[in-house]
Amino acid sequence: MQNYSVDVNMQPLSILDLLAMKQANEKITCLTAYDASFSRLIDQAGIDVMLVGDSLGMVIQGHSTTIPVTIDEMVYHTQAVVKARKRAFIIADLPFLSYPTIDTALKNAAKLMQSAEAQMVKLEGAHTEIIKNLVDFAVPVCAHLGLLPQSINQLGQYKVQGKDVKEAERITEEAIKVEQAGASLLVLECVPADLASAISKQLTIPVIGIGAGVSCDGQVLVLYDMLGITIGTRPRFSKDFMQVAADIPSAIEQFHQQVKQKQFPSAEHCY
Ligand code: KIV
Q1: What is the DSSP letter of 231?
Q2: In whole angstroms, what is the distance from residue 260 CA to residue 43 CA?
Q3: pTM score of the predicted model
């Protein structure tokens, strides 16, 4: 098995490398990043993917949701992250209401890919027509299903999704549809571990879980949660890696190793 985590080739990883990891049963590691300093540390620790998440609205800007984040702010933070990265694959979020039509989705994806050099954009929900059109114009897409933080005002609260059979079937159907629409990756947030495991096995594309159990093809955490500096209560699915590390680089390396060795997440972090 090729070990991507010690690959010293300084070309950034590509979408094909991530697919090869799934096929080789090597877990994909992903952390959110919002600036150049952390981008450098995360990259040096060998993390495979950095997600410039719209969670920056909460952890950087101090908002209570991700809703206020703008596309220009996403471009600004993505530019900073890309500047300091050598190896990690970079995904940038399309923020709230930046992809309501095919035209706006294309225009905003162009900003993330041309001005900021993201390698892939992520969008929430099973918007298959939007995904198809982005993919037709060579924009790689990561879909995001399960708990959708941009829908918080419809949901009313952040909670586990897909607990009953009907909801589980809906999420499974959506996962199949986004893959068929051309998505190259799927983030599954806050769903029961059994459901995430079944979806990960059913799909060809890599499934990156957050609060979705150890059987996903990879794991993502919000950087500030895993560094133990969550504002308020840390989500149950996350873990403070600073408790087992002497400094920030070691905490990031611990996350990387524990995901690769399938030690994180453990039962206490799952639903
Ligand atoms: O914005 C973000 O950080 C995310 C992760 C929670 C997956 O979308």
Answers
A1: S
A2: 16
A3: 0.95
Q: What is the mean pLDDT of the chain?
A: 96
pLDDT tens for each residue of 3-34: 545 455 579 999 999 999 999 999 999 999 99
The residues, any chain, with a CB within 8 Å of residue 107's CB and separated by 6 or more, are none
* End-to-end CA gap in the chain: 31
Q: Domain spans of the chain?
A: 15-269
Residue 259, judged by CB atoms within 10 A of its CB (0-12, 13-18, 19+), counts as: buried
Q: How far is the CA of 108 from the centre of ligand 1 (A)?
A: 18
- Cβ(225) – ligand 1 distance below 6 Å: no
pLDDT by residue (tens digit) across 116-163?
999 999 999 999 999 999 999 999 999 999 999 999 999 999 999 999
User: What band does 1 get if pLDDT is binned at 50, 70 and 90?
Assistant: very low
- Residue whose CA is at the smallest distance from ligand 1 atom 6: 222
Catalytic residue, chosen from 124, 174, 179, 189, is 189
Q: Which CATH architecture has domain 15-269?
A: Alpha-Beta Barrel (3.20)
Tokens 């490398």 belong to residue? 17
Q: Give, in order, the Cα–Cα distances in Å from 3 to each of 17, 24, 40, 51, 105.
A: 11, 10, 21, 21, 36
**Radius of gyration of the chain from its Cα atoms, rounded to whole angstroms:** 17
